[in-house]
Amino acid sequence: MTTWRPGPSTRLAGVIGDPVRHSLSPAIHNAAFRATGLDWVYLAFEVPAGEAAAAVAALRALGLDGLNVTMPHKSGVAGAVDRLSPVAAELGAVNTVVREGATLVGHNTDGDGLVASLRAEHGFDPASRRCLVLGAGGTARAVVRALGAAGAAEVVVVARRGEQAATAAALAGRTGRVGEVADAEAADLVVNTTPVADELPLGLEPSCLGPGQVVVDVVYQPRVTALLLAAGGQGAATANGVGMLVHQAALAFELWTGRPAPVTQMKKAVAAELVGRGG
Predict the structure, then answer these.
(1) Which CATH number does the domain housing residue 121 bear?
(2) Is 74 a catalytic residue?
(3) Which domain does 269 fall in, by range?
(4) What is the pLDDT of residue 279?
């Protein structure tokens, strides 16, 4: 079997963030490139907060063919690229940069990644379903917008700050509204986008969760959060953030390469990496 080595024609993609050395993206994308036989390599670049524009300038100068963006650079990159996709423009945040000739185009695949993972992993289509999102930050806004675009009957946003919750809920269009944690009881889908892992977020009661629901926590380390443990104990279907991570990466891969993403191999790479890290 031939061992792949980078050469003069190897194309480069990567991820910027601060911190970023913990990122699973190199494992995901390098597995995808090897599975499809593409002569690409993917690296992680630690870029300090406030240096998003400089990183985009470096991307131009070095000729990178693809870039992923994680915190705290999503809004900074949105202001530094040449053009934004409609989704990225609405969110004011970019997680994927695509080179189209000399033009750098910013996309956001986060919310669509969640919807794709729900459909693929759980057979759950948000269309005509009642959804509740905990949190109102950048990830929440992407999720809310994607659920609204997927035709959800209702997208309820619960957050500590009412103004932020209202801003997020508006991204779902006419089906979005601000609510309370008790609204989880009537939801078909509950998505936690807050960073809380060791306790139930926003005072959510386990009794609000139960059979027939899908409960997702976008956290993937730890793999089982307090929310997922409680939801599983109440009979709900549960998922951590690995599915969303893989499927948003798959969408980025397809934007860069124009090829279908090898999702199965990408998932296997994540699982192996987490095992290697003791996760």
Answers:
(1) 3.40.50.720
(2) yes
(3) 11-108+244-276
(4) 60
